[in-house]
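Figure 2 data, in text form.
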Amino acid sequence: MSELTGRVLTVDTRNLTESTVSDAEVGATLLYLTDAAPFVDTSGVCIVEGAAYQFADVDIDADALILTTPLTAVVPEDSAVEVFPPAPEKYATVAFGDVVGDATPVLVPHFLVELLPDGIRDELDQEIVTVETGGAEPTMTNIVGKPLAQGVVAVERLTPELLALIRMRFTDAAQRDALIPTPSDGMSAYLASDGLDYRYSGGVWVPQLVYVKKPSNTTVTSSTTLINDPHLLVDLVPGTYRVELIVHGTASTSGDIKVAWSYSGTVVSGNRAALGMTVDGTSGVQTTVRTTGHFLTTEVPYGLEADDTDVLREDVLLKVSTSGRLNLRWAQRASSSTATTVSAASRMYITRLADRT
């Protein structure tokens, strides 16, 4: 006995049937079969090529049926002889390699029948099964992986090795939620609609890397009151995140810019590194730069100039215990009639982290 792993190509339910191993002429009373055992303890009736015949006995040693009435038509070799009344059996065609031509008919035992619907499988619909060989006929022993096309993720039968290899891909969130109605923490899924990977955590699907880019410039004139940037924001669920901010901006050397963050939920910890030109700077290529650390909501001033677009960067480590919105806030450092502009080239990257603290 040996056990193989293969892919299910087709499944069909058929009546318990054996084949004749030789021709039987008109008037014959013996039918020699591949295996006569299935006819023991049945009704004494068999179906031969669609016609019903009674048999008086089963010769197990000779694998033969002893008919009560002679055959009324020739029965060629390899003709189907069915048990009556019907005793349906389910069979799967299983491929054990990459070549479909190597597929083998496999008996599906009763405890797996309900898990394998009849039909032809497409490539993404194929169950992964184990099959025991070496007995009377190949017999399925387990289903170790089920496709999403059947509306389930068979976690109870997936080995950790197979589960780790699965990359679940969906058209959009609606398809994902329909096919995974009860996800478990740690599941991952890719959505073609936005090109993002999601992980299920805390009752919601969380994108693992989010990129936010401003679609247009935002300007502030003659104001030191912080505003919420209309584009540089993201909604978060409980967890730990790294937020990388890159701002491209211009301003008068007297107006400059100051930057802070707001979060509408509960912050456990929020620290950031600030890197950019100091407020006394007059050129983005100067050697005096800010490299300081601050809490999330602290206002941090940076130097900007009107003639060139300067860049400032912030790297934020944020841990939150409730869902909320993270928003960049900024204003002029000092009121100036020359506009301070955060340009459309500005962007932020948000990465969900595994917290090891």
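Caption note: The chain has two helices and 28 strands.
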